[in-house]
Amino acid sequence: MAAKALSFDVGDYVVYPKHGVGRVIELQKEQIAGMELELYVLRFEKERMTLRVPTNKAEGVGMRKLSSNKTLEEAVETLKGKPKVKRTMWSRRAQEYEAKINSGDLVSIAEVTRDLFRADDQPEQSYSERQIFEAASSRLARELAAMEETDEPSALKKILRILNEAAPRHAKVEG
Which pLDDT tens digit goes with each residue over 160-172? Predict the structure, then answer.
């Protein structure tokens, strides 16, 4: 059985693992090195970036449609979970967090967001922890916003509300 290549239509929101949520704005055919290539033209508004992805390479680079509602529910449950604090060196953890964010996997991004979240009554974060938290929560918020047809700030508020509601429960367990 031949695997059917992923197909996206103009106007579809897609997730490109390294850049997050973009929108297919055009399908192009281009002559490159004597070969005709069909390309998805993706627009990432937040980064003000346009990316061209050959249609036959879309699956290989991990480009996908927005997550299913089931995956979104799993990501929200992950946010409500107890943060996992690893005792390894920060540089090693930072690499792991970056890899999870760039995987494009919504649940992995939710894990990073949860693990690096700090409620107002918790100790300050380092600059690099804050940067990674913001990258993860922004990536999560953009996909949530696209799925719920809202904007990123509203989606981010929802994520932070979930995290803030969960934080006291986990603090009591530890204290």
Answer: 999 999 988 877 6
Q: What are the tens digits of pLDDT across the range 112-156?
A: 999 999 988 787 889 999 999 999 999 999 999 999 999 999 999
Cα separation, 148 vs 150, in Å, equals: 6
Which residues, at least 6 apart from 57, have a Cβ–Cβ distance to it below 8 Å?
none
Q: List 68's β-bridge partners, or say none.
A: none
Report all structural domains of the chain as residue ranges with CATH numbers, in order of start: 10-63 (2.40.10.170), 67-168 (1.20.58.1290)
User: Is 0.85 topped by the overall pTM?
Assistant: yes
Is residue 112 a contact partner of residue 75, using CB atoms and an 8 Å limit? no
Name the burial class of residue 6, with classes exposed (0-12), middle (13-18) and buried (19+) by CB atoms within 10 angstroms of its CB.
middle
